[in-house]
Input
Amino acid sequence: ADIYNNYTVHVHQPAMFQPVGGMGKIGDAFTRECRDMITFNAKVTKINQDETGVTVDYINTDNPESMRKSVRADWCICTIPLSILTQIDINVSEPMKQAMAAVPYDSSYKVGLEFKRRFWEEDEWIYGGITYTDLPITQISYPSQDLFSSGSGVLLGAYGFGEASYKFNSLTPKERISAALEYG
Ligand SMILES: Cc1cc2nc3c(=O)[nH]c(=O)nc-3n(C[C@H](O)[C@H](O)[C@H](O)COP(=O)(O)OP(=O)(O)OC[C@H]3O[C@@H](n4cnc5c(N)ncnc54)[C@H](O)[C@@H]3O)c2cc1C
Output
């Protein structure tokens, strides 16, 4: 019986906190605090390491015809996805190159749908959580904020992986919304 007093059993899930305004606010805060250190619209084209440091070449995506620029530093912390990094001119060892090319990536897609009215709450009494389906949209996820409020709300109208995501990702945004609405 003791186990039922433990609030981490699956029927008593721990509280999950979220940033006010959504996860995007984390990136916004970094931008606010580190604005002077960031170069926007810089597409890295080459990373070259030598005995004394690293040189990173980039182009300005706003003006691709402009001169290629470069920055030099003691170290480079690179967070470019491996699927792209393997296509960039980078002087790493052969085993490192092979390791980078060997990491598989999965495909995924999400569709956000804003409705004028929170019909899932008003008509269906659904407050947060997820509806799982056997359709290509996989799931419908309901907002966990502003419960009982009137006016508009945003649903996660689809969140799929694998085969279905290739189909969804090849649609235009408009077609994607139509498909998500139809399945929903
Ligand atoms: C549809 C979808 C839904 C997901 N849902 C969830 C979820 O609910 N929860 C969760 O935890 N994770 C989720 N993920 C996974 C999560 O988004 C990723 O794991 C995470 O964003 C990876 O972070 P990252 O910094 O490695 O790469 P990214 O976020 O992809 O960042 C890489 C950055 O590198 C930049 N870049 C690429 N090439 C260059 C270049 N040549 N020069 C300069 N910059 C370049 C890109 O513009 C990008 O900003 C989801 C992913 C997808 C696609």
About this structure: Residues 171 and 179 are 9 Å apart (CA to CA). The beta strands are 42-50, 53-60, 69-73, 89-90, 108-115, 130-132, 139-141, 153-161. The helical segments are 24-34, 82-85, 94-102, 119-122, 162-169, 173-183.
